[in-house]
Amino acid sequence: MDQNSEVRALLDQVRQGNLSVDQAMERLRIEPFEDLGYAKVDHHRAIRQGVPEVVYCAGKTPEQTAGITESLLKRSQANVLLTRATPAHFEAVRKVDDRAEFREMARCIVIHRDSTLYGLGTIMVLTGGTSDMPVAEEAAVTAETLGNKVERVYDVGVAGIHRLLSQSERIMRANVLIAVAGMEGALASVVAGLVDRPVIAVPTSVGYGANFGGLAALLTMINSCASGVSVVNIDNGFGAGYMAALINRPPRAGDQ
Amino acid sequence: MDQNSEVRALLDQVRQGNLSVDQAMERLRIEPFEDLGYAKVDHHRAIRQGVPEVVYCAGKTPEQTAGITESLLKRSQANVLLTRATPAHFEAVRKVDDRAEFREMARCIVIHRDSTLYGLGTIMVLTGGTSDMPVAEEAAVTAETLGNKVERVYDVGVAGIHRLLSQSERIMRANVLIAVAGMEGALASVVAGLVDRPVIAVPTSVGYGANFGGLAALLTMINSCASGVSVVNIDNGFGAGYMAALINRPPRAGDQ
Amino acid sequence: MDQNSEVRALLDQVRQGNLSVDQAMERLRIEPFEDLGYAKVDHHRAIRQGVPEVVYCAGKTPEQTAGITESLLKRSQANVLLTRATPAHFEAVRKVDDRAEFREMARCIVIHRDSTLYGLGTIMVLTGGTSDMPVAEEAAVTAETLGNKVERVYDVGVAGIHRLLSQSERIMRANVLIAVAGMEGALASVVAGLVDRPVIAVPTSVGYGANFGGLAALLTMINSCASGVSVVNIDNGFGAGYMAALINRPPRAGDQ
Amino acid sequence: MDQNSEVRALLDQVRQGNLSVDQAMERLRIEPFEDLGYAKVDHHRAIRQGVPEVVYCAGKTPEQTAGITESLLKRSQANVLLTRATPAHFEAVRKVDDRAEFREMARCIVIHRDSTLYGLGTIMVLTGGTSDMPVAEEAAVTAETLGNKVERVYDVGVAGIHRLLSQSERIMRANVLIAVAGMEGALASVVAGLVDRPVIAVPTSVGYGANFGGLAALLTMINSCASGVSVVNIDNGFGAGYMAALINRPPRAGDQ
Amino acid sequence: MDQNSEVRALLDQVRQGNLSVDQAMERLRIEPFEDLGYAKVDHHRAIRQGVPEVVYCAGKTPEQTAGITESLLKRSQANVLLTRATPAHFEAVRKVDDRAEFREMARCIVIHRDSTLYGLGTIMVLTGGTSDMPVAEEAAVTAETLGNKVERVYDVGVAGIHRLLSQSERIMRANVLIAVAGMEGALASVVAGLVDRPVIAVPTSVGYGANFGGLAALLTMINSCASGVSVVNIDNGFGAGYMAALINRPPRAGDQ
Amino acid sequence: MDQNSEVRALLDQVRQGNLSVDQAMERLRIEPFEDLGYAKVDHHRAIRQGVPEVVYCAGKTPEQTAGITESLLKRSQANVLLTRATPAHFEAVRKVDDRAEFREMARCIVIHRDSTLYGLGTIMVLTGGTSDMPVAEEAAVTAETLGNKVERVYDVGVAGIHRLLSQSERIMRANVLIAVAGMEGALASVVAGLVDRPVIAVPTSVGYGANFGGLAALLTMINSCASGVSVVNIDNGFGAGYMAALINRPPRAGDQ
Amino acid sequence: MDQNSEVRALLDQVRQGNLSVDQAMERLRIEPFEDLGYAKVDHHRAIRQGVPEVVYCAGKTPEQTAGITESLLKRSQANVLLTRATPAHFEAVRKVDDRAEFREMARCIVIHRDSTLYGLGTIMVLTGGTSDMPVAEEAAVTAETLGNKVERVYDVGVAGIHRLLSQSERIMRANVLIAVAGMEGALASVVAGLVDRPVIAVPTSVGYGANFGGLAALLTMINSCASGVSVVNIDNGFGAGYMAALINRPPRAGDQ
Amino acid sequence: MDQNSEVRALLDQVRQGNLSVDQAMERLRIEPFEDLGYAKVDHHRAIRQGVPEVVYCAGKTPEQTAGITESLLKRSQANVLLTRATPAHFEAVRKVDDRAEFREMARCIVIHRDSTLYGLGTIMVLTGGTSDMPVAEEAAVTAETLGNKVERVYDVGVAGIHRLLSQSERIMRANVLIAVAGMEGALASVVAGLVDRPVIAVPTSVGYGANFGGLAALLTMINSCASGVSVVNIDNGFGAGYMAALINRPPRAGDQ
Fold first, then answer.
1. Which of C247, E104, E237, G153 is 20 to 30 Å apart from A242, CA to CA?
2. Complex ipTM value
3. Could you say which of F161, F212, F221 has the minimum Cβ distance to residue G161?
């Protein structure tokens, strides 16, 4: 690795008398963390193939977003994913790269440059209702941009349990599942009871009154009586898609 | 009725000149509400046949409980129901009336004096887990003491949805349903999706961590996406049993 | 029924040798839940006579709403109820079916096609104040659309208890009661103390400061010291009207 | 008054040349606040006739409590009130002054030395249930110890409104009212609707589940739709009794 | 009183044989509460001299507000107070009665018709900061409209304690005090420590971050360590002004 | 599978004319869910190799626990895991099977019968402090009992970041990570920033004051700014261990 | 000091017989607090050199803001700082004094009149992300306006710990540190673990879902497991900058 | 410093050919963080002179506590501070080192070995009431053990403002102030308004009802309208004492 070879080069120079101990001390002292930091990033970049460059657009102007995108496009050959984007963001980004696509429901902009399939199995995204679809699409688009095959099973809330059960064959074939639900958020528990694969639960802020902006669904999911469920933040479709993609990648085997 | 006849007697006395208008005014003035109150109670008593006398034992000594029971036994021929009772309460009450039975899991004492069946259909009590059974039993015993046929379907939580579905035939035959669940409390929504009869949801304090003493289950149930669900307080088995019994009684028809 | 006749047709074909067992297996295997689902819906439809098709308009465009309405009108001859509707939704729906009526205060659109009275008694809707009327009207219109006789008793909050008591004769004649109140939400307890029929409590978000969007009224109602009260979500007039309608229907008798 | 005369004496000494300006400055400089403090206390003491010396026993040992009592007895001739006291506290205090009485339900110890009636009218203490009585008694004993006539109207919760209304004549005669209630805490609103005098609302921690240690009752009372209600802390009977006593005292007239 | 004379007339008719006992029973049965209700209102009206007719404008259109005002003007000769009013409300109300004045900062419209001074002493309104002034003015205008002399002491928050103390002479002369404060809300405790008269605390929603819309100030005030403080809802200037006016009225003496 | 063959047998009988269509209809109608339920369980058991039988001991007597264990031992040859166990539970369980081991810090009893390694890589459990160790051990023992290699890295809280960084080589070799932390719960974010594998975050109730029983740590973790983190309930070591074990199993590949 | 000399003058007059004791009493009585108040302010002004005049613009019109600024400019020669300012505020203030500068990101207007460096060391402001920069800039500008050298280290959130560590040399040279972070707010703990100087933590409302307007970050910071951290209100950059400036001033030595 | 000299020695060996580059790489690779960690600790230790070794006893057995103490005594010559200690902890620790003193009210054990005064000025600890004293003493003992002069000003709550003001001379002489208060927690604001030095606010859990375990005081303090206040966790006397001690140390001057 780079950093290692830098240190080795430095030690070689010391050994050969080309660098004094004091000079070596100085170089080691000044940037130990920084080198380490960069080394880590480099090392990771190799492993993190297919991980897109990500921009969170909320609170950024279209111009800022376009500027960041421009610089990201140069940094790697990975896909670029912009979340929480508006049509205005899209207009600006499209001028930077006309491959940019706007996934309106997901509120995402994607610049596709790497079509490798990194995921091993299928990631399935389920929603309780149709209003949960924007969050679900953010998860789905994120997982796709990370190189995964994604299936969508929407509007299968637990109040009409037969709708969910009628999909159980498909559900059982998924490798990772993302259960997106607002209101009472019970979908994750039922899904986790049907499968033996990891379920990522995403509470949404869909609902009113005592759902308190998604708190009710969050508490439901965190208290799930089913095994094999873990939870991300309210409306955090990106986080769920990213987590699912990590799980769906080839594992780091034990003998490594 | 008593109060009516008292007022009639008073008016008779006025008409017959045995009571001056001033004296009548005075008597009507002093206790208008109280009389009314008793009238209401009397009037209701006729309708409320089979409504037990109820004592909430928490915070009362065994002696106080026994004293109240003794006086209630004289007031009517209805059943007597003591909730949140301990063995010590039972010891004291049994001395007052040896018909007293202790329903240990329900934490209830029942003195059965009226075995009339007042309910029209079956009240079904379901629980998510075995730990919810004390609350469920409080609901069941309450409904039974109010003269209802009760069926119990326990440990059918949504994380193993087939357990619940395997009971769906029975579930669909019930007239009123009580869904008792802690942790994430999703049972009520699933049950309400299966039936077309009223479902009373009872959140329990079963669980730990972010269930916050039953708050998580309460919010889940209040936010239920299913139609035909309403909710009582955390651990309030008595309230659910009572509500279910009212629903299960003959309706007050429109032409009354 | 359709699904039953489909299964029967399939079995007939098997019996007649027109369909191999494997082919039959395949057809039964692929959609067991879905079929079941339809079966359940069909089975229910018979019982659920008078249950309207319902659309929750919040978050849907007028066009989407109109499209859904169009398809629902074909599905059954039941009434159609659209809740949380705006004038714009109404404009779009009226073009689909000019029988559509806009109940402005209730924020509901109703397409009346079935005028059968399914309810046995009267459903009474009470409010604490005039600001609670939109939620109360949503409950009332829902109950009416489900085929019930509804009486309204508005602005009888507990701070002027005589206003409520002056209606007590009417109140006592109702079969099911819906108590709608914001601010401190005490109406449900007082009403439940006056009657011996089920009371559905609806907290509203009416108020300010420490009512925290209806939380105060919700907690009041959930903690009601009166028996025979259960609670739905804040501002959930539809849920209360639906629950009341279920209670007001002929019971499912015990020997069924 | 003492402090005034001290300052006057000091000024007299300056005028007579017995105290240098520097010495006077020094004495005024060192304790300006303290003197002022005492002055304020002294000045107030004249006005605050009948205000008892108060000890909050929770967290104090019986010995500490007795010691404080001993010193308070010397400080004035006012009554002494010890709140949140246990039998052990009483044992210790009785040794200091055998006039000490233990009001067990109120958890108060009273040493009565001043039987003047300072209050102008009657202070009425009402409770929703019998479990609210300890808090109500703390309020009542506090008001009595401050020299007021107190009437108790207990167990008149709003779920049986006739019990409250049957007392309405008495209620309307009170000058200040204290409404003590747990669970849903609706009593204060109803009482304030009946009278035209100030109502102090005291939420209690009586209840379970979603009452969250009295929070539900507190929110109910703070959100009261009735005019003329203000609220003290959960279980703060002392605070309510004290506030009511201040209101019941002769007013500070405008021309003062 | 009316109701009494109605009952007396009825009894007279019975005595004279002009009304049968059954007829009398019927009339007493039908409207006992209603009569009582009106009686109570009438009875109160005599006592409640100077209590304004009040309209809460929030959520009402200018036209509705004007209509209600018009009818209130006929009902009594009392002042009319409209709270939470906007300039649009004022425009509409002024057309109904040109005596209407708009107190802009208080967001109140007042129609002054009764200039009697009903209060005995001075009501003092204090604020922690200038941003609390709208709530304080609502309290002040309410108290004035109820016939009280009001003094304002604004911007005396506890972080600059000398500003408050420099007003202590004036503060000590008030008969009732209203402490209005947002942010940390400590003003009420300090004021109550300075005086021996009742203090009404009004938390405001002024602040940001962890003040949670006034919750922080509410909790501070409810937990006040000073005696003689009670609290109304966040931003409820009207409630505080009304409560203070009740306290400032002549007491209902004990021998009544 | 059983259920399939039952249906096939039924169809065969229909085809052969041994069963009428009506009789077949009847049998299909009666137990569709129940069969399905059992089928699902059987089907899953084959897949869920190595999944232990689990008993949650909290709230169960030692005798109940032993009885359940006895029956579970017969049901399969899998490991048996008892969580939240006390020494008394262990005493009772050991009598049933003397292979039972008590993992005291984890509060778990394990009966080891299957030593197959089902996991592909290493599961690493990290804690912020030593007080988080009981929850971490519950996670570790759960993962081990599910057939995984587990490494422990304890007491590496973020306030001394060098302790965590000094383990970064080991950390980067793990396939799944479990970050257990109370107080401010920041560990999960830092760990997720170091690795490119899934991190399960477990908030603990360790701390005091404003940690509100683990709520603070839960909110921290749910709001993590790092990608690749999902969260389980407060103190839910079992849930984290189970989730990690599912992730660590061979994936369900896409072509399945 | 003024007040002292006033009192001395008064005492002199008494001593010389030019003022009677009664007159002196009167003057001492009327304004003890006021004098004290002014004295305190004067006394402080000397010490508080370099403390700017501060205006909180939120809720004030541009005209009000300009008016206040005009009067503040006359009161002292200190810098003037206007926080939470908009461009409209700036337009108005610039007309009053054209030295006014608008720090847009900080939402602050500064009128620089005193360029003395009052702080002893460097105040370092760190942020977790770029969205935290407005709050950080408010802190930085506040500290600068109070006469401090400020260094900014932005976007060093804990999810990429190497970014923070690469700055550790600079971080360790600061005298006071301000850690500004939203979302999970873990930055403060990590920074406090790296340094041995005081860290002021500022939670921001940056984030969404379960961050509840900054509550999550606030709780994280309050529960920090690192020593040497204290916290200000959510988004309170001004408060943090002011606190840091006080700490950075020359200490009040022990022998004073 | 040690670590530097270790690295230097290593480089020297490389230069002299006594260590191969590979061997050097290996040694640098294995423990880069750990070395760094120790370096940081060592480096800090020089600066952190007088920082005691600290043990948090809650949740540790007396034996564990004694063991840790024994090892800490060897690590440095600094004072040893054990917080949240019980008499049992003290018994065990005293056996390890008989210089151990038990500060009972502070719940601290101190082993004094370094009596250097590291602090520049006085740290003043103030409390609102006597019940806040244990937390205040924890703060005071912590600051003393860190080598500071501490003054205590207890029971000066804002409800009796003269008690606080009578100490204002002393208060103004302190270099750092710690304001400890429960209930409404207003003390910090008033103190910060009196001084121009940093104030650390410590909310305590003293109180009942709506103080919610100290949350009310925490919110009050976080929302303080006074400048120069920052807050630590509820009951965190140690944290406040430590923060105050850091502030009271000689600053790290700008040219360093």
1. G153
2. 0.82
3. F161
